[in-house]
Amino acid sequence: MFSVKYRYGFILLLAVYSYFNIQFTVGEKLFDAELTNIHLFGVLSAVVLLIWEFNRLVEINLPRIATGLLKKVHPLIILFFVSMLNVAIACFITLFLLDIVLIAPLQYDFTHTRLLLAFGFRVNLFLNCVNAIVFYMNRLKQTQLEAEQLKKESIEAQFEALRSQVNPHFMFNCFNVLSNLVYKDPDTSSKFIAQLSNVYRYLLQSQQKKVVTLQEELSFIESYLYLLKMRHGENLIIEKKLEANSDNFYVAPASLQMLIENAIKHNIVSKNNPLTIRLYTHNGSIVVSNNLQEKEFKEESTQRGLQNIQSRYRLLSDEQVVIEKLSQEFRVTIPLLQLQ
């Protein structure tokens, strides 16, 4: 506090306050002798200035002072006790300066010294109290900033961990499809590879992003659906009814792809039981739903897909991902995000 930028303004204000305080209590008699208003104000200003500046020097040099056993002592306590010595030095200097200004013989007067010390100790106590308040307010602010930074770093780490789960699982499925196509139909395989390239390019570009525009995600989904249609043909039906402006809304990267993949993974997709997946907007959200026809023998699952999406949106927005399992339909509602 003592090194504050506008300290001389505060020193002047404190001197003015002290002057009027003494005027209303003892008048011009600070000692047992009368002083003019100018001399009285000069004495008070000199004491306040010297105490403040001496304390500032101590505060600056605290790291040098607090060595050895003093390292275990709180810096405010060290500053307070050293400031008591500063008060004595400031008062003695002021008294000698007063004698010089009054053209009086330099002499020590116990009564004058005691009265001035009483005033100096009151000023010093006030300054140390204010300094303690400023010290702890700054520490609280620093603690809050550090806590906020740790929280931010924690969220970033969580998001990075969640985001890294997308690519390996998706790419494994794509290469599995490609391995079935490459010997059967080279031309189709070539087209498949081109679309797979588009998909993988998107995943690479969005890997470091928390959100992408709805338009980017939908363009990615078009390529992804092409890959799925190559595998499932007419057994997979995709219905889209998206009314939102896809350039003004954002979603977590590959979130729609994960929901489509999840639907195919857990449901029967066959000629007799085609799987219908619907994508549509509703009340500021995008809904991905499918007719429920669960496999009798379910594939091994880590159950992380939906948890991944819920966790990512929990870090992105206060709005929640809603998962509903009805008698004939499975539905997931994802909030469309709008950036401020």
List keywords for this structure.
single chain; 340 residues; Heat Shock Protein 90; 2 domains; 11% strand
Would you kindly provide a written description of the structure presented here, covering whatever features stand out?
A hairpin with a 3-residue loop joins strand 6 and strand 7. The protein has 340 residues and is α+β, with helices and mostly antiparallel strands. The strands form two sheets. A five-stranded mixed sheet has the order 2-4-5-7-6, covered by helices on one side. A two-stranded antiparallel ribbon has the order 1-3. The mean pLDDT is 78. The longest helix has 54 residues, at 110-163. It folds into two domains: 7-160, no CATH class; 164-335, 2-Layer Sandwich (Heat Shock Protein 90), CATH 3.30.565.10. Helices cover 61% and strands 11% of the residues. The protein has helices at residues 7-25, 37-60, 62-65, 75-101, 110-163, 166-181, 186-206, 214-232, 255-266, 305-316; strands at 212-213, 236-241, 250-251, 275-282, 285-291, 322-325, 329-335. The protein contains ten helices and seven strands.
